[in-house]
Write a structure and sequence with these properties.
mainly beta, Neuraminidase, Immunoglobulin-like, Cytochrome Bc1 Complex, Chain D, domain 2, 6-stranded antiparallel beta sheet, 9 helices, 37% strand, globular, transport, carbohydrate binding, signal, Carbohydrate-binding protein
Length: 903
């Protein structure tokens, strides 16, 4: 009898060593540096893109949900429409209510033999009175799809009374079998975030047992068929149910799926992988209903039942639930699931449930912490096998061999999953941590080894401006230099001398020798060329100049960066100063005197009255988020109230909020304006809405379930809510303040009192006959007087906890340093202590010094601070702004705040 083990014994020793070495090499391959990957934007303005395929010549064909099939051609960088289908995207309830749904054009794929037969398959919901999704085949010769070649391959009967879950992923295996994923076609938002099992008469659209749990229905499945040239298809051997089995569909490969999509097959093992979108619940209720929602990433080594609607995640069981009586029954049994629904036409006894490969909820996952928190929508992605990319230009490195790259439509990350030889989960890591995708809806490798991603954008059922097609290229060889180009001045009067700098330019390949070339042009015509790193150029004629730095490495790879210099007009100089009071901190309900100074070489100044005070814009805004958020405020233009809500706007922009909400329009959830109007006169609105966002839930605005956001801090939640509430009242442009005046730093109602006051002054000059006007803006930031350890600008011999909220003195001579602190009017500095030590410990000493750790002593304390919560140290003799050092020369201390008091 043949024994495969004997084959290894018969192999020559050198060949056996080669086999072992190759295996070991794949396991020990070094992780590539992130800078070896480059994101390239191929196409923008794609409209609700769904699924795509990359052709051998680099063209990308993709489907848009509203019915168009388009092709992106990299040779021309243009997109063309090759077909437009009339699709159904609406649902009409029994009450006659019309709503937008997920149906439409869901997917396209080319036949494995496309080069010879030119077949293309489309899966969509055709417009009309017949509720179905259909798989059709057409001939496509490279221009428009030939509609008269239509051949219907498969129809999937559906219901169009309620949304959702279409599936629509398609994939061919090496035997040319076509896999098609279908959703459970079930409205789930009337199920309180749990499983939809409504068996009441007329409620079948809300019962997933009719589809996913039904062995005699094509919905909620992954189907496997073999399309035939002269007929629709045959069923390959080895599916879940053998042909002829009563009450079953032989096309079923997997069942118990909710919304499976973006299928991939490991070309080495033949195992099938996909993403599975879960329900919406944010909390467990095991006594009445069952587990909270989990999204899944699944693996099928063979046909199987993946549990929905009776189980979720790693076979967490739901309870039988009567939607009429609200009574709960027993937990379903994963080993012996049964379907007794009157809406099912299939078998009662179902195959055992297969647990998910990876599962994650709205909150933090202890098993898979890299999945993050908040709304989720598992998409899936490709498994990399280098053997699939022979002669490719840019295949990913061996480090990714056999690993699965997955993504999430809401969260936008890409994670890399390592899978063991037996198919077991081993580990997970982030791919390119700085990369954040916007609604990734399909992801796969192209023929040259690049990773392509189709981004749907943020928000359902609309043309998102951020939707695009990108690819991520790997550079395994010589990398281009990273170029930085700066100028000492970017505008000025004539003659204008500008020092150009290449500081910060670097090359990641250490052996390279770089050469530098600066080309200065005016109106596209050459002006000056320099072959040095940091030249100086003098501009004697007015106009706009462009300075381009090109850096070339030893191997000839180059990269460039440009900057613009405007000659002929000196920018204004604007300053905001405090003339009476403290220039570092504000104190609630206290007054300060301020003054704005403006001077302009051509226009004059405020002082000589050639610049009128009315031409200077001055404003003050309170930013409740604190001093660390001023960088956001600086980016906001103008003097309106937008700056006040900058942090909330920024938090919403990087969260999952935009997937379900917009400012004006209802999406899945209410518009921000609707929410603001509802809570306009509610004094507890900030607390109420913050809790809702943090914990998730449904019911206030209908069945839509809002996911929990447990990772958001109370401060962040407050920022989001205050911005949302502000949308009810149109923001008016703030009237400019006087250029010199007295201002009372009051705290707006409902805001915390340790934010920042931002005084902003700007002036636009008159320009010159040969140069355009220029604007200069300057800020004065007064922060709250309570500083946290994380806000220190330096330290010595201090140990921080993980989030830098607490700092511990390690040895005598340790200190915290705060840069440029104004001690004007400061009476004492109060240390917020966390009690430590023993009553028998000797006294300690704390010194306040300015300028250096051994600089001028402006305050000190000697004594025992064992058991104290606060320690106030009087301050005397301080002058102007100096670096401030809090030096500990005695016993250890532990503190979590430093407060500057003016009384």
């Amino acid at each position: 009898m043949f024994n495969p083990k004997n084959l290894l014994k018969a192999l020559p020793a050198f060949l056996l060593l080669s086999v072992c070495a190759a295996s070991a090499g794949a396991q020990t391959a070094k992780k590539p540096e992130d800078n070896r990957f480059t994101k390239v934007v191929l196409a923008q303005g794609v409209e609700e893109p769904m699924q795509f395929q990359i052709m051998k010549d680099g063209r990308v064909i993709y489907a848009e949900r509203k019915g168009k099939i388009k092709v992106y051609n990299p040779a021309t960088n243009k997109i063309t429409v090759i077909a437009e289908f009339a699709v159904s995207t609406k649902y009409v309830s029994k009450k006659g209510e019309i709503s937008e749904g997920e149906d439409g054009m869901q997917g396209i794929i080319l036949d494995p033999d496309y080069d010879t037969n030119h077949w293309i398959y489309v899966y969509y919901a055709p417009a009309g009175d017949v509720a179905k999704n259909t798989l059709e085949r057409y001939t496509w010769l490279g221009k428009e799809i030939l509609r008269d070649t239509k051949k219907t391959v498969l129809d999937v009967p559906t219901q169009r009374e309620e949304c959702c879950h279409v599936g629509g992923g398609m994939l061919f295996d090496k035997d040319k079998n076509l896999y098609l994923s279908t959703g459970d076609n079930t409205f789930s938002r009337a199920s309180d975030g749990f499983t939809p099992l409504d068996e009441r008469p007329g409620m079948s659209p809300e019962d997933s047992q009719k589809s996913s749990g039904n062995t005699n229905d094509l919905r909620g499945k992954i189907l496997r068929i073999h399309p035939e040239a002269n007929g629709p298809y045959t069923v390959p051997a080895g599916n879940l149910f053998a042909p002829g089995t009563p009450k079953t569909k032989p096309e079923i490969y997997t069942m118990g799926n909710r919304n499976p999509w973006r299928l991939t097959i490991d070309s080495k093992t033949g195992w099938l992988y996909w993403g599975e979108v879960g329900p919406d619940g944010s909390k467990d209720d095991f006594e009445k209903r069952g587990p909270q929602s989990y999204d899944e990433f699944n693996q099928a080594k063979k046909p199987g039942n993946y549990g929905w609607p009776y189980f979720v995640g790693d076979n967490k069981a739901y309870r039988k639930y009567d939607f009429g009586t609200k009574q709960s029954g027993e937990l379903f049994n994963a080993e012996h699931p049964e379907n007794h629904s009157p809406n099912s036409s299939g078998l009662t006894e179902l195959p055992p449930a297969t647990p998910a490969f990876i599962w994650y909820a709205k909150g933090v996952s202890t098993q898979f912490p890299l999945m993050e928190t908040g709304g989720n929508s598992a998409v899936g992605g490709p498994i990399f096998r280098k053997a699939d990319f022979k002669n490719a230009k840019r295949p990913f490195p061996d480090y990714y061999e056999g690993k699965w790259l997955i993504t999430d439509w809401v969260r936008g990350w890409v994670n890399v999953v390592e899978i063991g030889d037996n198919g077991e989960y081993k580990s997970m890591e982030r791919f390119l941590p700085e990369l954040r995708l916007r609604g990734p809806i399909d992801m796969k490798f192209g023929p040259e080894g690049d990773l392509y991603v189709l981004e749907y954008g943020n928000g359902y059922f609309k043309n998102n401006p951020e939707a695009e097609l990108i690819r991520i290229e790997y550079n395994g060889g010589n990398r281009k230099p990273q170029v930085q180009a700066t100028a000492s001045k970017t505008a000025g009067a004539l003659p204008l001398t500008v020092a150009l700098s290449s500081a910060g330019t670097k090359d990641f390949d250490d052996d390279d020798v770089l050469t530098y070339e600066w080309k200065v042009t005016k109106g596209g015509k050459p002006f000056k060329t320099f072959k040095t790193q940091n030249p100086s150029v003098t501009l004697t004629a007015p106009g706009v100049y462009k300075a381009t730095l090109t850096v070339t490495d030893l191997k000839g790879s180059n990269n460039s960066k440009s900057l613009t210099v405007k000659a002929g007009n000196e920018p204004p100089v604007v300053a905001v100063t405090v003339t009476k009071g403290n220039s570092s901190f504000f104190f609630p309900n206290k007054t300060i005197a301020y003054k704005v100074n403006v001077s302009d070489k051509e226009d004059g100044s405020l002082a000589n009255k050639r610049i009128a005070a009315s031409q200077v814009s001055v404003s003050a805004n309170y930013l409740s988020e604190g001093y660390n958020m001023t960088a956001i405020a600086q980016k906001q233009q103008g003097v309106d109230a937008t700056a006040r809500y900058a942090a909330g706007i920024a938090l919403i922009a990087k969260s999952d909020c935009r997937a379900c909400h917009s400012v004006k329009d209802k999406v899945l959830g209410p518009s921000f304006i609707e929410v603001a109007k509802k809570y306009k006169n509610d004094q507890s609105a900030v607390a109420t809405l913050s809790k809702k966002i943090k914990n998730g839930g449904s019911g206030t605005w209908g069945h839509a379930e809002m996911p929990a956001h447990p990772a958001l801090t109370n401060n962040e939640l407050g920022s989001i809510v205050r911005y949302i509430l502000s949308t009810a009242t149109p923001q008016k442009t703030q009237k400019s303040m006087p250029v010199t005046g007295i201002y009372t730093t009051t705290i707006p109602k409902g805001e915390n009192d340790n934010g920042s006051y931002i005084f902003r002054a700007s002036y636009t000059d008159k320009g010159t006959a040969s140069a355009a006007a220029l604007t200069t803006e300057n800020l004065l930031v007064l922060r709250g007087s309570l500083l946290t350890p994380s806000q220190a600008n330096g330290s010595k011999e201090m140990a921080y906890n993980r989030d830098s909220t607490i700092v511990v003195v390690k040895t005598a001579g340790a200190y915290l340093k705060f840069n440029k602190v104004d001690l004007t009017d400061i009476k004492n500095i109060e240390l917020k202590l966390l009690p430590r030590g023993r009553a028998t410990d000797p006294p300690g000493t704390v010194e306040i010094r300015s300028g250096a750790a051994d600089g001028k002593l402006v305050g000190s304390f000697t004594g025992s601070y064992v058991g104290l919560n606060t320690l106030q140290i009087p301050v005397t003799g301080a002058e102007g702004k100096e670096d401030l050092y809090i030096v500990f020369t005695g016993n250890p201390a532990r503190l979590n705040g430093v407060k500057f008091n003016n009384e």
